[in-house]
């Protein structure tokens, strides 16, 4: 029973962490793109003035950053939950 209660209690924390991870990843991507390209705005797939290379490079960089940030936040949340509850969340 305690396991189910812990899962329910951790759900809102995970939602907040997910939102924070998205915001952090978005801000980080903007900075990385600015450094990599010198352009303040990353290309959008629907922007006809951008090349295929720009659009695909931006998508690849953004995907990699989001994946790393998501993994780091998920791992950090699980580590924090273990500190609080005494066991790894499942």
Structure, explained:
- The protein contains two helices and no strands.
- The chain is an all-alpha fold.
- It has one domain.
- Helix 1 (2-37) packs antiparallel against helix 2 (52-85).
- The two termini are 14 Å apart.
- The model has no long low-confidence stretch (mean pLDDT 89).
- It comes from Actinoplanes awajinensis subsp. mycoplanecinus.
- Keywords: Membrane, Transmembrane, Transmembrane helix.
- InterPro entries: DUF4235.
Strand content: under 5%
Major pleated sheet: none
Number of domains: 1
What does the average pLDDT come to?
A: 89
What structural class do you assign from the helix and strand content?
A: mainly alpha
Termini gap: 14 Å
Rg, Å, rounded: 18 Å
Shape: elongated
Order of helices and strands: HH
Helix content: over 70%
Oligomer: single chain
Q: Which runs of at least 5 residues are low in confidence (pLDDT < 50)?
A: none
Transmembrane segments: 12-32, 52-73
Organism: Actinoplanes awajinensis subsp. mycoplanecinus
Protein name: DUF4235 domain-containing protein
Keywords: Membrane, Transmembrane, Transmembrane helix
């Amino acid at each position: 029973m305690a396991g189910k209660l812990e899962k329910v209690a951790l759900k809102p924390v995970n939602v907040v962490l997910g939102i924070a991870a998205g915001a952090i990843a978005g801000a980080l991507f903007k900075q990385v793109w600015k450094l990599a390209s010198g352009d303040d705005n990353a290309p959008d797939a629907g922007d006809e003035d951008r090349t295929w290379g720009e659009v695909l490079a931006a998508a690849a960089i953004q995907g990699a950053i989001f994946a790393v940030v998501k993994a780091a936040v998920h791992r950090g949340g699980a580590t924090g939950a273990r500190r609080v509850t005494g066991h790894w969340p499942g």
